[in-house]
User: Fold this.
Amino acid sequence: MEEPIERAARDLINSNYAIALTGAGMSTESGIPDFRGPSGIWTKDPEAERRAYQTYHRFLANPKEYWEEKLSGPSLFGDLTKVEPNPGHHALAELEKMGILKCVITQNIDNLHQRAGTENVLDYHGNAFKLRCIDCNARFDLEEYDLQGLREEGRLPPHCRKCGGVIKGDVVHFREPIPSDVAHQSLEEAWRCDLMLICGTSAVVYPFAELPRVARQRKVETERKTGAGIYAVERVPAVTIIELNAEPTPLTQEGVSDYLIQGKTGEILPGIVEEVKRLRR
Ligand code: APR
Ligand code: ZN
Assistant:
């Protein structure tokens, strides 16, 4: 029976367009807590999750107050400038360099895929190091605005240099629409891929959790030999979906993924990359 790591390496080598979908489980080995794992942020403080569901409406009601609060309080994740990509992030960057992985769609806002060298990253829930105009979707790096200066001069919220709209952090809050450009590109990737690696996500938050289901429903026609010179045309799944996670998820239980490799992303992914190199020799 083929080892799961070897099976995943072979599936990746045989793919034409592999993508990865990632969640907080990618970054726990970098020291950033996840949300729903045993020591997750929401697991330990359900009240914080309830409050998080109000953030977007509070922003819409009073952007100035949203910014005052954001600039005065600590981040949920601590100081993200002090964490480093882990071997899992580097492994995905290496698969992109090998020409196998074409895109990473991440729910994480920590910018660690980019810092590990992955070039094609879609920040599905935004990026903690960026600002975004809610009118025209323009993104700006944090440093492009002197937020503390605006706060001291009583000139919050910041306004978009392109259209004058109100600017918020790029991070997508609960109940906030996914920015249309990222939503559209992510759906395109789910329609285009023939292999989907799903790494470190509980797959309970929508619409992100819809992406594997979009991929699962895709079928392609193939011919199967039924007898002497006779072929039957049948419709088979177009995408191989592989989960890498510490625990089974609804994708595992509902058979959306073809198989789960249970364990740590920071160990499994480098193992898969080593196996790809061995098989390619
Ligand atoms: N290796 C593999 N899996 C891991 C690891 C690890 N090192 N650490 C944690 N996990 C698993 C957890 O067991 C859990 O199943 O990763 C999953 C993380 O799930 P969540 O904490 O729910 O994080 P995520 O799926 O990314 O959450 C989605 O919810 O709160 C919102 O916007 C937030 O983007 C976030 C979204
Ligand atoms: Zn704008």
About this structure: The chain has one domain: 15-280.
